[in-house]
Amino acid sequence: MSQNQTVHFHPAEGFAERSRAAVNDAHLRRSFRGAMDFLQAKRLSQFPDADELSALRDLGKAIRLHALANLPDLLEQLEAKLQANGIQVHWAETPDQANAIVLDIAHRHDAKNMVKGKSMVSEEIGLNHAMEVAGIEALETDMGEYIVQLAGEAPSHIIMPAIHKTRQQIAELFAAKVPGVAYTDNVDELIRIGRDVLRKKFAAAEIGLSGVNFAVAETGTLYLVENEGNGRMCTSVPKVHIAVTGIEKVVAKLEHVALLNILLPRSATGQAVETYQNFISGPRKPDELDGPDEVHLILLDNGRTQAYADVQLRATLQCIRCGACMNHCPVYARIGGHAYGTTYPGPIGAIISPHLLGLEATYALATASSLCGACVEVCPVRIPITDILIRLRNEAQAASAGKLRGGGRARKPLQSSIWLVWSWIYGQPWLYRIVSWLMSRGRALAPSNQGAWTRSRTPLNPAPQRLRDLLRRPASG
């Protein structure tokens, strides 16, 4: 499989089938519904004042818009500051290039073991697969990521990767995959088992890899948040630390991080603050006992400049990866993350995946929405997700490719012809009167099977009388 797409990616053609399978999985639906209800309640408890929340969201949006408006300059400033701090900066246009950079660093250090903190960008580029092909063990150390890695699965949520699994399933997985472990579904014991395995790996790994929550251009600082301490171990114990992130994660000032970090944990997991906050501004200095000898940052494009080039689609890059849109989405709550088939599921996945993988492979995701706007209402940086979804639907059905890679690929000649004929009829009043009269009189001929519509709805039948016929009736009494 090509490394310029995620290892677990599944094309748009199978989305409907995967969604139906998920909807018919009663256990999965119960698990997700309970988890989403819990996370919604936790978030709500952290924002009791609606006016304060609105003001915070306005500030969060302003910070992200400012960063994106000045993105080229901020990226240059970030690179200069990082290099001045002793951090080596690498640029990758594609996942292949990003993986090649990691492999080059690993080969230079003759590395065979890598420990990984949580990083959705590493999932995006299929890094684990690339390392496995090269004979390097890349072990996930976030507990949720470790669980799905043992299961050979992709994360089903960007914040809580194993949210789809019960403790009984995890207990069975540990008993089957971890040598010398007996079955136990005690949560504390399962966590202890995972920690025992990972502790040994931290000490043996030559390379630690992490993501980045925000990169501060003003100071050349990489900011990472976490709850387990594994991220701090990955970035400080191995001799080499490699951080990978999308180019959009840069912010102008350190003070901007403080505001965004009020929104991030409260929107994500309903916490007032994360357990660990890591500020990395360089490798270990000569007089310091802890820390890596080398720090590398890989800045990844992978379609982000396509989104950036369009004023409306640029809002996609405001995302701070909190997952709130997923937690409140009625579609995601019913089908889970794996049905989407992409690294980023849910509403944010539906609008960012077309840039990463092409609209021809992901256009179906834009239709996985009722446009209810729940995602827009909770987004901490006010991304107009529903507006972007409508734009992507239009781009997928456009007569020409347009601005997006893969645009127009969902267009079907028969369907397009039907709408063309309908628009012509609708534009001719005399013709519309004739056709509507024929439809009302021939309503018995309407088919009972009307494709996707009648899978969950009653058939559409023309009314026995048109509105104009009813209006012509004399008023009663």
Structural summary, described in words:
With 477 residues, this protein is of the alpha/beta class. It folds into two domains: 12-305, Rossmann fold (3-Layer(aba) Sandwich), CATH 3.40.50; 414-472, no CATH class. Helix content is 48%, strand content 10%. The protein has 22 helices and ten strands. The strands form two sheets. The chain has a six-stranded parallel sheet, sandwiched between helices. A four-stranded mixed sheet has the order 8-5-6-9. The longest helix has 21 residues, at 26-46. The protein is globular. Mean pLDDT is 92; it is low at 1-8.
User: Strand share of the residues?
Assistant: 5-15%
DSSP strand count: 10
Helix vs. strand class: alpha/beta
CATH architecture of the largest domain: 3-Layer(aba) Sandwich
| Order of the strands making up the biggest sheet | 1-10-7-4-2-3
Structural domain tally = 2
Overall 3D form: globular
Indicate the low-confidence ranges by residue numbers. 1-8
Highest-level CATH class of the largest domain: Alpha Beta
Put simply, the count of helices is 22
Q: Which superfamily, in CATH terms, is the homologous superfamily of the largest domain?
A: NagB/RpiA/CoA transferase-like
Mean of pLDDT? 92
| Topology-level CATH name of the largest domain | Rossmann fold
Largest sheet: 6 strands, parallel
